[in-house]
Amino acid sequence: MFPVSVWRFLNWPLSEEADYRTRRDELIAEWRNDGLIGESSQLDRRATLLFGTGGTYNIDDLRARAQMMEVIKTSLSVMMQYLYLFSQEVFNQQHVAVR
């Protein structure tokens, strides 16, 4: 569902001091806290629907899925900021090297 670069970003280990191992873990915890999916120990109907084989969605499932996608979008905007900063560093290094 995600390009390899995005999947790597979401699964890249965070710092040792972070509350979660990866951004993916952080997203899943946020979805659980917001009541969008159930606990992993008791995989609920919605989690099975969203992450399993699929099935019939009701309006609440669709709204939950839309909220989950918004959370992912926010996380990926962080990735875009990192890429922008990286590109600026590369550009500045090339600009200095040319002089």
Structural write-up:
The chain is mostly helical and 99 residues long. It has one domain (4-98). The chain is built from four helices and no strands.
Q: Uncertain segments of ≥5 residues (pLDDT<50)? A: none
Shape: elongated
Number of strands: 0
Query: What's the story with the biggest beta sheet?
Result: none
Number of helices, where a helix is a run of at least 4 consecutive DSSP H or I residues: 4
The helix-and-strand class reads mainly alpha
Distance between the termini: 44 Å
Summarize the structure.
The protein has helices at 4-11, 23-33, 45-51, 59-98. By secondary structure, it is mostly helical. It has one domain.
